[in-house]
Design goal:
The protein has two domains: about 5-120, Aminotransferase class 4, branched-chain amino acid transferase, N-terminal domain (D-amino Acid Aminotransferase, Chain A, domain 1, 2-Layer Sandwich), CATH 3.30.470.10; about 125-280, D-amino Acid Aminotransferase, subunit A, domain 2 (D-amino Acid Aminotransferase, Chain A, domain 2, Alpha-Beta Barrel). The longest helix is centred in the N-terminal third of the chain and has 15 residues, at about 50-65. The protein is built from eight helices and 15 strands. By secondary structure, the chain is an alpha+beta fold. The model has no long low-confidence stretch (mean pLDDT about 95). Pyridoxal-5'-phosphate binds near residues 244 and 245.
């Protein structure tokens, strides 16, 4: 699927990605004033779509942008994009900005939001990637204090991820005031003495849709789960470390700052959660 044959949705129309244009005064372009969502779809079936649409609604409300569409219309757009795609496993991207207006920080009056959505091929983590695990570095979290909003203002995440790329590793593990926050575009999980730990759902992290899902998988398997502040020394001393995100699903982190986590190999809790994830995809 290239830009020429990818169909996308823009403000009520379906068209090829290469023909989709927005005015330069769009507030998403000028201010990063918008919200987005990323929904994985397997065999063209969206995974945990209602939770993603709930989070879209929550982010829009926090940004004080009216949700432009009722839920059925979002369903229709996502259904259309996935059904018309030429591959089976997809990632659906949706973005809503505050719209096009003269450049002024205050909200414009009577301006319609800009709505864009597209479906691209989802490259699922390969069996080799799952076995190899991820290498990471720790970096200070330099983002703003509303990381719970899925905002398109992603400069902090871009700069963080580039540090990982510059060092030839897969992802960063961010920390603020000595506590674990999250990856550049993923939630980070600690396993210690058979317990799964996650940073609390507060303003310092984005609560991933996989956050609730992994909690459910733990509950089903009677694996103790705690959402609490986690120090970086606990991260370094973890038995296992994992990350989760729509496109990466759940993956083991086997190295942090050049040192192995646990024995440096994917661990038993990861394997258990991984199996639960795969079963949920198969059952879609
Ligand atoms: C900062 C951040 N945290 C966490 C996540 C994981 O969220 P989800 O599981 O909904 O993909 C993402 C997703 O890309 C993210 O950008």
């Amino acid at each position: 699927m290239t830009p020429d044959d990818t169909l996308c949705y823009l403000n009520g129309e379906y068209l090829s990605l290469s023909k989709a244009h927005i005015p330069v005064l769009d507030r998403g372009f000028i201010f990063g004033d918008g919200i987005y969502e990323v929904v994985p779809a397997y065999r063209k079936r969206p995974f945990r779509l209602e939770q993603h649409l709930d989070r879209l609604q929550r982010s829009l409300a926090e940004a004080r942008i009216d949700n432009p569409y009722p839920r059925e219309q979002w369903h229709a757009i996502i259904g259309w994009l996935t059904q018309s795609a030429t591959v089976e496993d997809l990632v659906v991207y949706m973005q809503v900005t505050r719209g096009v207006a003269k450049r002024d920080f205050t909200f414009p009056a009577n301006v319609a939001p800009t709505v864009f959505a597209m479906a691209s091929p989802l490259n699922r983590p390969s069996p080799a990637q799952r076995e190899r695990g991820l290498r990471t570095i720790s970096v200070p979290d330099l983002r703003w204090l509303r990381c719970d909003i899925k905002s398109v203002s992603l400069l902090g995440a871009v700069l963080a991820r580039q540090q990982a790329a510059d060092r030839g590793v897969d992802e960063v593990v961010q920390h603020r005031d000595g506590r674990l926050t999250e990856g550049s575009a993923s939630n980070v999980w600690v396993v210690k003495s058979g317990r799964v730990l996650a940073p609390p759902r507060d303003n310092l992290i984005l609560e991933g849709i996989r956050y609730g899902f992994i909690q459910e998988l733990c509950e089903r398997a009677s694996i103790p789960f705690d959402a609490r502040i986690i120090s970086m020394s606990e991260v370094r001393g973890a038995d296992e470390l994992m990350l989760s995100a729509a496109t990466r699903e759940v993956l083991p982190i086997v190295e942090l700052d050049g040192r192995p986590i646990g024995d440096g190999r994917p661990g038993p809790v990861y394997r258990h959660l991984r199996r639960g994830y795969d079963e949920a995809i198969d059952a879609l």
